[in-house]
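Board notes, transcribed. Complex of a protein with LMY7XDAE.
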Amino acid sequence: MANVIYGSDIAKQVKKDLRLRIMKLKNEQKRLPKLVVVLVGEHPASVSYVKGKEKACHEIGMENDLILLPATTSEDELLQIIHQLNTDTKVDGILVQLPLPAHMDEHVILHAIDPKKDVDGFHPVNVGKMLLQEPTFLSCTPKGIIRMLEEIGMTDLSGKQAVVLGRSNIVGKPVAQLLLNHNATVTICHSKTEDIKSITKRADILVVSVGKARLVKRDWVKPGAVVIDVGINRDDQNKLCGDVDFANVSEVAGYITPVPKGVGPMTIAMLLENTLQSYEQREHVSWDER
Ligand SMILES: Nc1nc2c(c(=O)[nH]1)N[C@@H](CN(C=O)c1ccc(C(=O)N[C@@H](CCC(=O)O)C(=O)O)cc1)CN2
């Protein structure tokens, strides 16, 4: 049976470390790091995710504002709020929860966030820096996946075949790039790829982010492979499940992440880490002072 990688446990440890760093700032009576999350509309899953972010900030002592806007907010109104946050010297991180309502252009909104406060790592400047392996904010889910691989000793991926199912800007493309940056040989599969199973069966590391409940079956997976499941779906019984058929794939995989308690909690932990990174850059905190 596969070893289960609980992102929830790793995230707990990350948050413990961040809390200690913030406590130190508090004791020194320094300004505290601050994250502002903006949610437009009342998409139920998004409401739950932004509440999760608020709770996580509270747990580690990070300052946090949650700006809730009606779904009827215009693009200009949202841009105005982003401009105010960009110039607010007390704000270190800005996150606009996705997806946005259909009348808004996601690119216009994400491009408006100051790259130095873009703790989601979605701004083209930060995406470009990631591609060039320059220091920057790495987007949270891909960064969390790499951290999970590191936790099981997979730091240098030389000689490993990594296959990514899904090519979204939030997960598929950036995680493929980060795996490449760690020397893996990377293949991306998507809805137009033919005979996906023959490709996934070769993967030493399989990352799945397609949004289809239990799509990946046992016979898609190479024995001993590391399977990272990014999907969050509801099945016919309204039970939360991933894109991987966990019960059956765990019988062949070497490692597997569960849903829930896998990648999701890592996304939030990495967001907090990025916000503290932004604070430290803005306050010119050196490595020794941390
Ligand atoms: N601006 C952004 N928008 C979105 C992002 C993002 O990184 N930035 N990612 C996703 C949603 N997401 C964070 O925002 C997120 C998804 C899931 C979880 C999580 O902890 N999930 C739990 C299960 C939750 C449940 O019960 O439904 C788990 O997997 O254990 C955290 C964050 C899209 N939008």
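The pocket of LMY7XDAE is lined by residues 48-49, 52, 95-98, 120, 140-141, 170, 232, 240, 259-262, 264-265, 267-268 (CB under 6 Å). The chain is about 40% helix and 15% strand.
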